Amino acid sequence: MKIKTKLYLIFIIDLILLLILGNLLNFSSKKIVSSIKMLEISEETVQKLAVLNMLTQDYIIQPNERAKTQWQIVYNSLGDLINYNFLPDKKKVIRV
Residue 18 falls within a domain, yes or no? Predict the structure, then answer.
């Protein structure tokens, strides 16, 4: 085999490996971005659940309309968050 042919072969192999590496990095990047987005949604869900728990305790201690209204607002907000981020499109619940 000639040196010129070997150089072309090595160049083609390097190019193929470079393309494979680029695709792996692109795939990994997309997975990381998706995971970060899901983490942010999960953190927001946990935060709203904590607020909902706190408002529930507040309502148990002092049952009044303000606490009930706040609880309903947070509850609906949490429902919307779960509805739009975790349910498939066909199962989305539409609130009136």
Answer: yes
The answer to the question of residue 41 being in a domain is yes
| Distance from the first to the final alpha carbon of the chain | 76
For residue 92, report the phi and psi dihedrals to the nearest 5 degrees: -65, 135
Q: Which domain holds residue 84?
A: 3-91
Please check whether residue 96 lies inside any domain of the structure: no
**Global pTM value:** 0.67
How many separate domains does the chain show? Answer: 1
What does the pLDDT look like over 38-96, one tens digit per residue? 999 999 999 999 999 999 999 999 899 998 999 999 999 998 888 888 777 656 555 54
Whether 9 maps to a domain, the answer reads: yes
Q: Any idea what the Cα angle at residue 32 is, between residues 26 and 33, rounded to 5°?
A: 90
Signed CA dihedral, 25, 42, 80, 91: sign only? positive
